[in-house]
Recover the amino acids of this structure.
């Protein structure tokens, strides 16, 4: 499953926001449920999120899962750059279109 998002400039730097909606549970379908732990790696302009019970990062949200990637973690992308998010089982890949 694919989704297109944009790098949003904020007062604290850049941000990429991923969240489920009631009609499109992309994160949940990939295993990224509220409270799930994961790791994030960045290599060659590609951000990879992988579920890992020992991961330092955790999916947030109260009713629906949310992943917020901001600041230095998305350095290298231009403001408003279009990114493609590819949701797979246990892995999410984010890269520039």
């Amino acid at each position: 499953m694919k989704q297109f998002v944009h790098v949003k400039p904020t007062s604290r730097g850049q941000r990429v926001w991923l969240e489920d909606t009631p009609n499109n549970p992309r994160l949940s379908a990939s295993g990224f449920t509220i409270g799930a732990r994961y790791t994030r790696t960045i290599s060659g302009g590609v951000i990879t999120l992988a579920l890992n019970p020992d991961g330092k990062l955790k999916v947030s949200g109260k009713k629906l899962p949310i992943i917020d990637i901001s600041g230095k973690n998305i350095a290298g992308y231009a403001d408003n750059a279009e990114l493609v998010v590819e949701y797979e089982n246990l892995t999410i890949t984010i890269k520039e279109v």
